[in-house]
Write a structure and sequence with these properties.
Layout lengths: L9 H11 L13 E5 L6 H17 L3 E5 L6 H8 L7 E6 L1 H4 L12 H4 E9 L2 E6 L7 H10 L5 E4 L5 H13 L4 E4 L3 H10 L5 E4 H9 L3 E6 L27 E7 L4 H15 L2 H9 L3 E6 H19 L7
Parallel strand pairs: 1-2, 1-3, 6-7
Antiparallel strand pairs: 3-10, 4-10, 4-11, 5-8, 5-9
Keywords: Signal
Family: Belongs to the UPF0065 (bug) family.
Protein name: Tricarboxylate transport protein TctC
Length: 325
Amino acid sequence: MLARYFLKYAKYSSLALVALAGSATAEGYPERVVRMVVPFAAGGGTDVLGRAFAKELTEAFGQNVIVENIGGAAGFIGTQDVVRSDADGYTLLFAPTAPYTMAEHATPPATYDPAEDLIPVARIAAQPILFSVRSDSGFDTLADFLAVAKDDPGYLSFSSSGAGGEMHLTGEKLKQASGVDLLHVGYRGGGPAILALVSGEVDMMPVVTGSIMAYILDGSVKALATTAPERLEKLPDVPTMTELGYPEVDHIPSWGVFVPAGTPDEVVAVLQEVSEKTATSVAFVEYLDTLSISPAYLPGADFLEVLKVQADGFGELMSTLDLGQ
């Protein structure tokens, strides 16, 4: 089970609760509606997960947490909106790591400095990527797909939620590892990118489990491989990239909560405590399991260390790409 991959971080959660026990006392917070920005179009993996998390937060806070989708530029536009918002705890960002880790490497660079302008509150969940094709594509294995790509460079295409995002870069890692040339087509979010795959506009998509599982279960899409470290329980016939000889294509995206820099410490503490309780609740974990998403809570300080490592890892790859595609 993929959740075991993250169990080594569980000790941080316990320590965080002890540290917060008596510190999360922002009086009256929240007193009104909280806005949660999802920096991608509705229908994609971030939107699905963000709405589920917002529902749980609404119950925990006793105040509505309203999701607002602000898509474009691989999440940078919505993140910029959050950065420019008041640092009072009433605007949250629910996002994958890309708008934080890849901002300085984008072309052109994002108009914010994540290290200076954002505070990571908590990591919430993680989900592996599935290299997915239409069921009627004629490709039964990843080897079939790559064989055609090698015979006709640039003929096959793949979609992503935007140039410079994690799905795009995972596709680029596949290209580098296998030596093939694939045409990247970026969209304004995971939802439109998935529709492009299903409708036949593109041939393949590296896409997280939570976004594509419904299409796999209804038979319209099939997965050729996963970036998970082991085969998924719900897709036992889908091999891992390591099994197929591409261990370097192993990225597992994670999602978390961020607030603008300058948000009061006591508000951040409340958000972190509620985030942990929500992310580890039985109801939320059971919902994640239906999507083959793993709970992966980390408090802000530890999440920040993960972000730094990812930023270093993707920086070199991004410097070689034309992100205008």
